[in-house]
Design brief:
Radius of gyration: 40 Å
Order of helices and strands: HHHHHHHH
Helix content: 55-70%
Structural class: mainly alpha
Number of strands: 0
Largest sheet: none
Oligomer: single chain
Distance between the termini: 107 Å
Number of helices: 8
């Protein structure tokens, strides 16, 4: 029978250095349960009085020795991992790289000049709609005529809050489209059951 070597005693500072070295070597990946036991034992050792610390230090030294042995055996058995070949790039990925955009980017960022152009076009469209509405104003309308009140409100918005006017007109256009879509759907009526008794 061969005798197993007795674990060497580590002082507390040496134990913390050993723990850190094992952590860097990936001890948790080799034996997660054993590593957790060692960490808990180390924390308990520091929290107890010196008489108990000596007993816990012996247990910790033995556990560290066993873990180092398992890690050495695992490193001898495990072959070095081969690097994974890069996946072939798709034509879309190649095109995106050619355009200078990363393939991982989920949504394309819009060019700031296009954004500015779109905003200016929207403002011009709103201005044109408001001008057309003003041209259709009734000539002999009274001061509380609803059509004239709406036109005055639009004129004040155009003068004092053009951004709000743009959002307001977009909102009204959306409501008008929804109303038109609702009217376009024909209502399907179910035929009424006849109340005459069958003879």
């Amino acid at each position: 029978m061969t005798a197993t070597p007795a674990p060497t005693l580590h002082p507390a500072s040496s134990t913390s250095v050993t723990l850190e070295a094992l952590r860097q070597q990936g001890a948790a990946n080799v034996d997660a349960v054993g590593w957790h036991y060692i960490e808990v034992l180390s924390a308990k050792r520091q929290a107890h009085p010196s008489a108990t610390q000596h007993l816990l230090q012996n247990k910790l030294d033995k556990a560290l020795h066993d873990l180092q042995t398992r890690m050495a055996a695992a490193s001898m058995q495990m072959p070095a991992p081969e690097p994974m070949p890069a996946p072939p790039s798709s034509p879309l990925t190649q095109l995106l790289h050619a355009l200078g955009e990363p393939a991982a980017q989920g949504s394309r960022a819009e060019n700031p000049q296009v954004t500015q152009f779109r905003k200016t076009l929207s403002q011009l469209s709103v201005q044109k709609q408001v001008t057309q509405a003003m041209a259709q104003a009734p000539h002999n309308a009274g001061p509380i005529n609803s059509h004239m009140l709406v036109l005055r409100s639009l004129a004040l918005m155009r003068q004092h809050a053009p951004d709000y006017l743009n959002r307001f007109v977009t909102y009204v256009d959306t409501l008008l489209c929804l109303e038109a879509a609702g009217k376009a759907k024909p209502l399907i009526k179910k035929p009424r059951a006849s109340t005459k008794p069958h003879v």
